[in-house]
Amino acid sequence: MALAVGSSGVVGLDNTHAMTRAEEQARLGHELGHCLYGGFYTRGTSYDVAERHEVRADRWYIKRAIPRRTLFRLLREGRDAWEIAELLNTTEEYVRRAYYYYKDVSKME
């Protein structure tokens, strides 16, 4: 989780559950996204606002860990989501999220 502290933030990861290195990177990257764009919320925050912050944190991580050109180059090479995740040291879930994010963004351009 990420918490606002003054004008910056602090990230904490739960180490009671074993994580792969890729899972740790994805979680840390997502939480860093909260810190670096200032997307914090509390338990009292409405669901829709909290969800917007979560989506923005995901997008922050995706843009940095799974660049659009790299993702689509690897897809053109015929690589599967698990291979791309392994090459980029992230999770398959984030590879899929990146694909749909970039696909949706390209529709708006």
Question: Can you walk me through this structure?
Answer:
The protein has 109 residues and is mostly helical. It is built from five helices and two strands; from the N terminus they run ββααααα. It has helices at residues 21-37, 47-65, 68-76, 81-88, 92-108; strands at 2-5, 8-11. The protein has a two-stranded antiparallel ribbon. A hairpin with a 2-residue loop joins strand 1 (2-5) and strand 2 (8-11). It is globular, with a radius of gyration of 15 Å.
By secondary-structure content and strand pairing, the structural class works out as: mainly alpha
Q: Give the overall shape, derived from the CA principal axes.
A: globular
Quote the beta fraction. Answer: 5-15%
Name the helicity range: 55-70%
Largest sheet, order of strands side by side?
1-2
- Integer average pLDDT: 85
Radius of gyration, taken over Cα atoms and rounded to an integer in Å:
15 Å
The low-confidence runs, each spanning 5 or more residues with pLDDT under 50, are none
In short:
With 109 residues, this protein is mostly helical.
Give structural attributes:
globular, 109 residues, two-stranded antiparallel ribbon, single chain, 5 helices, mainly alpha
Topology overview:
Layout: E1 2-5, E2 8-11, H1 21-37, H2 47-65, H3 68-76, H4 81-88, H5 92-108
Antiparallel strand pairs: 1-2
